[in-house]
């Protein structure tokens, strides 16, 4: 409903690639529907039309693949509702609930075995495939691919850093008095982990834009600044829009701006910092019932597109995936922020943990760019999350369910609870995830 259709539109807009796209879904009719929608996008192609087919099995989809793209929903939105609703009863409000905090933790418990299964299938059927993970919690799940297939050539792709690049383009356009620049003209040096990312350098056409950004953030530190998504309706803006007050405040606190959206950034800090008063900080706690209604609307639009009542629109999205693939297939090198195991690209963060920084995509693969080091004590906060994510992944992959509660309890959102409350919440969330966590792991929890 989301990333597949975006990728189809981007492939139709692109003129560099000739793509043979195999779609696989546990829900076979969904894959068939998307193949039909893909064919309608291909009919509008500016280049070589992509070919779409639905595969009957995961091995069939993977055999001989050059590129694998993973976008799944771990469980159902109804499971995600429990991730949100149970912690809310204990005073923990979550704006997203898919990366960290109690919601992100249990989503990871459901999803790590799924990504490990996919990783092993890639090992067996397409061991040299270049693999992009779009699924959250991105850090843990990209790590799961490497745990299942250590030789995998995988990266995690996230569009959150686009937000600060759009802000800088807006600043530059306002100065120029013309819509001269887009986010693609803005270069940033990215440091952190997924959804808890920061930038310490910003340039546009060789100009250092950090002073202009600092002045912009200071001018809007109290009122905030928002930019609507094109085509977004009022309800979407209500639940997904922000005023960037969290990012501006993190700049004040740590000396460099947050690069992800406020709804994600807030979840990495203790409840008292931002989540306890989201209205004050200009963002909402997105309810899962809205996601369910939005899914129904997207299903209706998809059916209209499938049968031809709605025509695909030829336009380039803000996503970088097609540019990354084109570079990997031998096109011009492309620089993008991605999630990869830390091999020294970010000093001070745990070796081997999945971190987010820039990397160069080229015909030889993906090469991380040395990003430097986050300022203290920010580095300590990011490192704490990275260590917890790595330990969570190890515990699930090795079946050490007895280690999970202590990891859950150590999250900044949960630490303020009394031990009895934290244990009760953990046990209720475990029971609510019945059937989606491996039995051996669940018994040891």
Automatic annotation (TrEMBL):
It holds the Pfam family Glyco_hydro_4. Residues 190-414 form the Glycosyl hydrolase family 4 C-terminal domain. Binds 1 NAD(+) per subunit. Substrate binds at residue 136. Keywords: Carbohydrate metabolism, Cobalt, Glycosidase, Hydrolase, Iron, Manganese, Metal-binding, NAD, Nickel. Gene3D superfamilies: AglA-like glucosidase. InterPro entries: GH4_Enzyme_sf, Glyco_hydro_4, Glyco_hydro_4_C, Lactate_DH/Glyco_Ohase_4_C, NAD(P)-bd_dom_sf. Its cofactor is Mn(2+); NAD(+). This is Alpha-galactosidase.
């Amino acid at each position: 409903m989301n990333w597949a259709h975006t990728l189809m539109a981007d492939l139709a807009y692109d003129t560099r690639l000739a793509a043979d796209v195999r779609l696989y879904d546990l829900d076979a009719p969904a894959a068939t529907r998307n193949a039909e929608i893909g064919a309608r996008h291909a009919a509008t192609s500016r280049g070589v039309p992509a070919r779409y087919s639905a595969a009957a099995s995961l091995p069939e989809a993977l055999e001989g693949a050059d590129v694998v793209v993973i976008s799944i929903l771990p469980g159902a939105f109804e499971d995600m509702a429990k991730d949100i609703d149970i912690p809310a009863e204990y005073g923990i409000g979550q704006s997203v609930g898919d990366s960290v905090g109690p919601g992100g933790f249990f989503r990871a418990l459901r999803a790590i075995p799924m990504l490990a299964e996919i990783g092993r299938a890639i090992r067996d059927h397409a061991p040299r495939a270049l693999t992009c993970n779009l699924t959250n919690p991105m850090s843990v799940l990209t790590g799961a691919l490497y745990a299942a297939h250590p030789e995998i050539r995988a990266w995690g792709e996230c569009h959150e850093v686009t937000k600060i690049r759009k802000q800088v383009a807006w600043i530059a356009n306002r100065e120029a008095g013309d819509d001269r620049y887009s986010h693609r003209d803005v270069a940033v040096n990215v440091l952190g982990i997924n959804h808890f990312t920061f930038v310490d350098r910003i340039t546009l056409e060789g100009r250092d834009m950090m002073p202009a950004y600092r002045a912009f953030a200071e001018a809007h530190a109290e009122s905030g600044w928002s930019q609507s998504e094109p085509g977004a309706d009022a309800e979407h803006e209500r639940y997904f829009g922000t005023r960037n007050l969290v990012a501006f405040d993190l700049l004040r606190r740590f000396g460099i701006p947050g690069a992800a959206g406020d709804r994600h950034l807030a979840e990495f800090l203790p409840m008292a910092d931002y989540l306890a008063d989201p209205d004050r900080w200009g963002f909402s706690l997105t309810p899962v019932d809205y996601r369910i209604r939005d899914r129904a609307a997207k299903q209706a639009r998809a059916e209209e597109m499938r049968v031809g009542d709605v025509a695909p629109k030829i336009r380039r999205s803000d996503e970088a995936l097609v540019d990354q693939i084109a570079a990997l297939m031998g096109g011009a090198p492309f620089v993008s922020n991605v999630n990869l195991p830390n091999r020294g690209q970010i000093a001070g963060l745990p070796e081997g943990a999945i971190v987010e920084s820039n990397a160069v995509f080229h015909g030889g693969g993906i090469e991380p760019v040395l990003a430097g080091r986050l300022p203290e004590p920010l580095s300590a906060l990011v490192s704490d999350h990275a260590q917890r994510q790595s330990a969570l992944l190890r515990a699930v992959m090795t079946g050490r369910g007895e280690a999970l509660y202590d990891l859950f309890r150590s999250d900044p959102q949960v630490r303020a609870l009394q031990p009895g409350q934290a244990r009760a919440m953990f046990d209720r969330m475990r029971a609510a995830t019945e059937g989606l966590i491996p039995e051996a792991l669940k018994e040891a929890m």
